[in-house]
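quick one before i forget lol
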Amino acid sequence: MLSKVRNPFIISEGRLGRALVVFMALGFLALVAAGAGAGWASRQNEAHTAAVAHTYQVELAISNARRLIEQGEASRRGYLLTANPDYRDAYHRWSAATPAALARIADLTRDNPDQVAALKLLQREVSALLAQRARTIGLIDSGHADTATTLFRTEASVRRLTTIRDTFERMAVTERRLLAQRDAAQQASVRAFYIILGVAAVLLALVALASLLTIIGYTRDLSRSRDRLRDFNERLEETVHERTSDLSRANEEIQRFAYIVSHDLRSPLVNVMGFTAELAAATTPLAELVDRAEAEAPQIVSDEARLAVREDLPEAIGFIRTSTQKMDRLINAILKLSREGRRVITPEPIDPAAIADTVAGSIRHLLDDRGISFSVRRPMPSLVTDRVAIEQILSNLIENATKYLEPGRPGVITVSGEAKRDRVILSVTDNGRGIDPRDHQRIFDLFRRSGRQDQPGEGIGLAHVRALAYRLGGTIDVDSEPGRGSTFRLNLPKTYVSQDSAA
């Protein structure tokens, strides 16, 4: 029983990886939290800044409206005392701008109930004041200055101006109180922003420190094991070289054995086939003899003799001939695989698309007879590998695709290729009957087939394809489902490197 020995060179990469993933996750969460907090704080700060700016706009609008009313009153009194038209023109300018100033205040304070109520009182008093001023100006313009002066002395404009000034002051006080509150809120959001950044910085520093300590510990362990690993590699290279040599010799022996066995099997098989031919030739005179005996002396010919000569013997010879032919094909296949294993790989630059076109051209009559649409997708990456092997692989795959079509569906075969790093993947796709997933590996075994056995073959082609792919340093697999077609993918290095040169 084999005992489990702990490899001294295996460092706990899994534990290190999990730790680093945890630290990275914590750092990421800290960044996300910092970003979310910073975004929230920024939005709060923007909102508070906008509110502060709005308060300043309201204060400016209140100050502007108050200025217009005071200047209008001053211009009216100047016109009343001097009858100078300049004062009258100035008054008209201030009076015309006053409604727009009040409308500006109303637009800015519509969301504040206290300011809305104060503005209603203000608008009522300003309207009355403007009406009184208009009467005074009209009397002066008509030449009744004395009447205008008497009216000015008796009107209640002083009380009304006092009310207007008090209302403006209350509105300004309200805005200053809001400004103080909004300044405080803005300062709080700024403090929260810096607190969030500080917490995130601390978390990131802790995560970075923990990650650094973990990596330092791993590096220390790795350094201690490097010397032992170097010694082990020196012994391993020597062991691998010995094992590779043993494996190469064993492989050569297997190929030689397969060749000898298949070659020696052919000798008795040839004898069997020869004697079967002689037996087949002998059945003709025997049948003629039985026919003559039946005509001349029917009593000497039994039913068993007649049945043996006319049915049993030809049937038995047919069975023997079919079996020997099948065995001959199997032996030829083994010989072909054995010869292919001994053939020297000759790498050269090739164009897989051109080879696919050549293969399709060689079976064009078959494609046309079966109504199969064949195409090659270009561009296709080039390869440096064995041309003969690629031709045999594509020929096997394309011919298989022409055999196993789905009844009632026109056949479509497509050859394509793509480059992935230092590898090239050649694909042969069809829309045929498909392959059961349970048989995806089985079909590459020697003498194994899948699905209905309604096509000629011995289950050798895909085994040959896999052997060739391995010799070229690649692999082959299949993606298929019954009724949905198949895709065979040949994965090869861009440039073939022999095992001897690699060693």
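fyi The beta strands are 347-350, 373-376, 383-386, 412-420, 423-430, 475-480, 486-493.
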